[in-house]
Design goal:
By secondary structure, the chain is mostly helical. It is 59% helix and 0% strand. It has three helices and no strands. It is elongated and about 65 Å long. The chain starts with 9 loop residues before the first helix and ends with a helix.
Length: 76
C-alpha cells in the first residue's frame, strides 16, 4: 500500500469524515474503494470496447438494395 496526499475543500472533508464515521470506515478506505471501483469500471469498459471493435461490421440491409427515401418513411 502507498500513501497519497490529497487536497480537499474543508466542507468536503467535513462531509467525508461524517460519512465515513456513520459507515464505520475511514476517509482513506472510502476514497480507496471509490477509486478502485472507478478503475475497474474503466478496465471493463476498455475490454468491452475492444470486443466490440474486434467484430466485423454487419450490414443493415441486403447488398444491392437501397434505403427507403425520407418521403416514403414519413408519409401520413
Amino acid at each position: 500500500m502507498k500513501n497519497v496526499t490529497i487536497t480537499l475543500d474543508e466542507d468536503v472533508v467535513r462531509w467525508a469524515k461524517v460519512w465515513a464515521a456513520s459507515n464505520d470506515t475511514s476517509v482513506s478506505r472510502m476514497l480507496g474503494e471509490e477509486l478502485r471501483k472507478k478503475m475497474l469500471a474503466e478496465q471493463h469498459y476498455g475490454r468491452a470496447q475492444k470486443r466490440f471493435l474486434s467484430k466485423s461490421p454487419k450490414p443493415l440491409k441486403p447488398a444491392g438494395t437501397s434505403y427507403p427515401d425520407r418521403d416514403s418513411l414519413y408519409e401520413r
